[in-house]
Write a structure and sequence with these properties.
Layout (H helix, E strand, L loop, with lengths): L2 H23 L3 H20 L6
Helix pairs in contact: 1-2
Amino acid sequence: MSGLSTVLILVGLFLVGGIISFVKQGMPRSLVTLLSIGAGLCLVAGVLRLDYWS
């Protein structure tokens, strides 16, 4: 696992924790949606950068 993929996966998981927190606080749904898109992109980019695919 390379360093960048590790960082992207950890940032994605951090953002998932933020989504859970924002939902519990009752933040606007558009903000939660934007945060979930960012978390999803970070997680997908981190998984795709793993060397298991080649």
